[in-house]
Amino acid sequence: MSRVADLAAARRRYATVCVLYWLPLGLTIAPLILLLTERGLSLPAVAGCLAAHSLTAALLELPTGGLSDVVGRRVVLAAAGVSNLAALVLVALGTSAWQLALGMALIGAGRALSSGPAEAWYVDTVHARSGPDAELRTGLARGASATSAALAAGTLLGGVLPWLLGAGPDLGARLSAATSGTVLPLSWPLLLGASVEVAFVLYVLAALHEPPRPATTLRGVLRGVPATVAGGLRLGGRDALVRRVLLGAAGAGSALAVVELLTPGRTAALTGAAESGAVLFAALACAGFACSALGSHLAPLTARLAGGGQRAVVLGLGVGAGGLFLMAATAASAGTAAAVLGAAGFGLVYLGRGAAGPSENELLHRRVDGAGRATALSVQSLALQLSAALTGSLASLLPPGPLPWLLGGTAMLAGALVWVDRGAVRPHTTSMRSLSGNGGFRRL
Fold first, then answer.
1. Residue-range definition of the domain harbouring residue 287
2. Quick one: pLDDT at residue 190?
3. Which of 45, 201, 210, 267 could potentially form a cystine with 281 if both were Cys, beta carbons 3.0 to 4.6 Å apart?
4. 347 located within any domain
């Protein structure tokens, strides 16, 4: 097989992995909160389940990234699929608070396990075929587009499927009888997602070939992971470009936290009822993911037109911040025009984030090698998650109106401004030296 064919196959496999991983999670977006409340959980208990997810993901983010760098991408990705499979079944069928909280924690564990290995596998493969100076942005953009498309399709299907089952009393009765009443209409999107997780695990094990790694023992793994994690933290503290990547991720996390926290209430107020507001939110979220997919698809063109990856990041995050400011300007207004402008702002947030992401990550991959790549991505993900948790908490304390939206827009704009007037970054240099204990990270 030629080198061009090898690279095309790697792009297809990476995009397929992105679809198979994110489609099940997309299926949960619309029904999850309603399912938890249908199981009898109060609003504080629902918040506790969500906190179990976030805290588990944050606690495991760096150790699992280090684990991927030590034992390999494929086995960690497969473990993420198994964790999500168990979680989706448990949440779909669980009836007690501890079962549902455990299921959400397992989803958090799967998120931590998955944040980095697939992308690291793709970059490792490209570098093995074409060297460290190979072009990465196109493949990363396709993966990001595939992720957004999977989330969009999953969100739409996950919102429609329970409604279809609930609207068909004969079908609903047959399904309830077959499952002894343990499966609600809201459970079926999660069970469908669990079946996709099986396909994900099988595909990862069959399709993601990687070079054999040196034989290691459990003691070696336990010793290697902390060294790799420490190297990732040192890299974030010492390398100026990596700091910009982390600050950009933090700004995006703040923006997304505000959008995800406040938009459902805004759609419910617009329609006049929580149920119809949830349907509208599902449609709007689907459109947002479609905008993110479009932005990611256009990322290579954006970088060419902007004159480089760093300028593309500034442009993308700036567009996203503009979307939040537009939502802030219409937050206190009513009527069709305000609703249309608010929806346009929502789309701009996701379009800008989608356009900036591939260029950010390509710049990040120029700074790390294969031994620490997944850990670097985990540090980036951790920055996004922690900033989202902090900004979401602050936004919930602000009075209704434009202020919470301005908080998210200002954070995203700040994430864009750290890239301004910083000079061009060389894609590769031979003067990089190791930062981690196992030689996994490089810096100028």
1. 226-444
2. 94
3. 267
4. yes
